[in-house]
Amino acid sequence: MDPGEAAGPAACWSEMDHAQKLGFLPQVRELRKIRRLLNPVRPLAPLLTAHPRWQEFRSWERVAQDLP
Description:
mainly alpha
């Protein structure tokens, strides 16, 4: 899953009812895993701006605030 794919379900997560959320359960698990993986990198962000995957991190950061 890339940040673009994650943005759709993440944006409407709070508006879904319980049955709809159950339908997205596999994706939710993956999104939560991604959110947990971002946490240790945040304090290092100022040191990583020259890293080749920095833009990918920034893309995920924009989506992360809406992740379940």
